[in-house]
User: Which sequence fits this backbone?
């Protein structure tokens, strides 16, 4: 059972932005969905995942890439060839 | 290469397209001059690509997805970008930020999703072929609901470079068309190795469909005909399987016990992957621009609240929860074991039979607005998610009608035996055509 407070906390972690009206709706829906997810408690298995996987590596060599002006075309704001981001400090 | 143009000005009565390319160019090759529609989560150089989300409104990719480059090399004309559930999150195409697509078979019903625009464009005869993407059934569901053919290839067979995926470990790009031969032709073009997708295998597809299925063994899982499946849909699919028996196949009853928790595992995994995958939509490098004067978290929240629709925000939060400290073991870790169990079940069955058959969807297409509760929408994916969890190929081919709406027969096969599921679908299609 999750509470509105839990959902608010998760919304904060996910940086999703949420208002009080939505909080009630999301909380109700999450409880229904998480109840359904409880079926996973019955999963039997040793937890060892044996997939036939291997890492894919390549040489660290320069290869053709996009032009700077093409990369910046979709950026919200840029300056001197750099993309501007909101302040982090 | 000689370049030609098509004139493509369809009357889009079902809102299949988000962008129409009126004067698409084409060259020479196996698909010369054929109009191909591309789902709007596949990057197209110089053509707006939104994933049906406000957050990417106005985004014009500076490069082509690998599959789009291959389409162009084969001479195809990119006719436009098709509507979808936002970022592929949905089963009806109602979660598009730009309004739903309607089902050409009955415009009061949904076309299925998330590749609903691609399915409707093909079903309405606007294009001969289309590309869709399938994370938990997003090619097969709309193919079944709109009465066309759709193939989810083996994971790794088609490059995902340039696909704006939401759940990377599950998603594949695949072909959609009115008939199996066209699906196979499009698959020939898009399959193959690409070094820019690290999950890509060097396994080209060169098959021309063969309708001879003499001696084929088909597994019929009881779970595909049990609770939750409309008995009328089950009856139509059973008739179709009987037709395959007349063509020389034999059937073997089987069971996929892990189906009990496959859907829950699928939703835990796909939302978890979405929660990290969609963190890149921060309004900095592309899309809905962030206010750089604000602090990072304030700006980020503002952009994502304004740009993402409700279902996308719901899935990001669910995934964040499933991965959060204290819950990871209960949800994500268990879901990974469940996924492994699905894979083991399917592998065991496919060591005894050649393919597995059942309905693609448990019902016919829903009425618009019918599935307003998220959990009831999720539950309708139960028959399609096993193929994504196991990474195996699966095709949906029309096999009859219930209440004047199409029903899809789903054929699943062993990894890298896409050719075989195509052959079985072709055998059925050719038999009912005669």
Assistant:
């Amino acid at each position: 059972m999750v509470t509105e407070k839990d959902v608010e906390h998760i919304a904060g972690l996910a940086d999703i932005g949420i208002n009080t009206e939505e909080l009630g709706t999301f909380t109700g829906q999450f409880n229904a969905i998480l109840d359904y997810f409880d079926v996973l408690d019955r999963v039997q298995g040793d937890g060892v995942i044996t997939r036939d996987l291997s890492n894919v590596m390549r040489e660290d060599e320069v290869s053709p890439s996009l032009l700077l002006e093409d990369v910046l075309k979709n950026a919200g704001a840029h300056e001197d060839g750099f993309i501007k981001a909101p302040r982090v400090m | 290469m000689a370049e030609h143009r098509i004139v493509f000005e369809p009357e889009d009565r079902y809102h299949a397209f988000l962008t129409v390319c009126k004067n698409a160019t084409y060259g020479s090759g196996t698909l010369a001059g054929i109009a191909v529609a591309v789902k709007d989560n596949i990057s197209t150089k110089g053509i707006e690509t939104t994933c049906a989300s406000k957050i990417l409104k106005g985004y014009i990719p500076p490069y082509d997805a690998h599959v789009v480059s291959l389409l162009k090399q084969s001479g195809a004309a990119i006719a436009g970008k098709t509507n979808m559930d936002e970022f592929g999150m949905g089963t009806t195409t109602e979660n598009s930020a730009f309004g739903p697509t309607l089902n050409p078979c009955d415009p009061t019903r949904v076309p299925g999703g998330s590749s609903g625009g691609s399915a409707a464009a093909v079903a309405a005869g606007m294009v001969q072929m289309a590309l869709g993407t399938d994370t938990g059934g997003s090619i097969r569901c709309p193919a079944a609901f709109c009465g066309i053919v759709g193939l989810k290839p083996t994971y790794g067979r088609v490059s995902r470079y340039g696909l704006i995926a939401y759940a990377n470990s599950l998603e594949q790009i695949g072909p959609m068309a009115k008939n199996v031969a066209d699906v196979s032709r499009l698959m020939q073009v898009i399959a193959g190795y690409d070094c820019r997708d690290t999950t890509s295998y060097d396994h080209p597809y060169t098959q021309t469909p063969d309708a001879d299925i003499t001696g084929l063994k088909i597994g019929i899982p009881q779970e595909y005909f049990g609770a939750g499946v409309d008995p009328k849909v089950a009856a139509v699919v059973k008739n179709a399987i009987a037709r395959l028996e007349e063509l020389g196949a034999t059937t073997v009853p089987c069971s996929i016990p892990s189906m009990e928790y496959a859907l829950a595992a699928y939703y835990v995994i796909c939302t978890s992957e979405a929660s990290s995958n969609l963190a890149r939509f921060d309004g900095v490098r592309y899309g809905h621009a962030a206010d750089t004067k604000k602090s990072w978290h304030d700006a980020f929240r503002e952009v994502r609240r304004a740009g993402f629709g409700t279902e996308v925000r719901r899935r990001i939060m669910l995934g964040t929860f499933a991965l959060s400290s204290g819950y990871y073991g209960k949800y994500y870790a268990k879901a990974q074991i469940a996924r492994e169990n699905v894979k083991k079940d399917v592998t065991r069955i496919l060591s005894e039979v050649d393919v597995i058959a059942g309905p693609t969807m448990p019902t016919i297409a829903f009425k618009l607005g019918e599935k307003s509760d998220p959990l009831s929408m999720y539950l309708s994916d139960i028959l399609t998610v096993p193929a994504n969890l196991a990474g195996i190929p699966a095709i949906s081919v029309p096999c009859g009608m219930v209440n004047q709406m199409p029903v899809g027969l789903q054929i699943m096969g062993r990894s890298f035996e896409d050719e075989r599921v195509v052959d079985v679908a072709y055998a059925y299609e050719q038999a009912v055509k005669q």
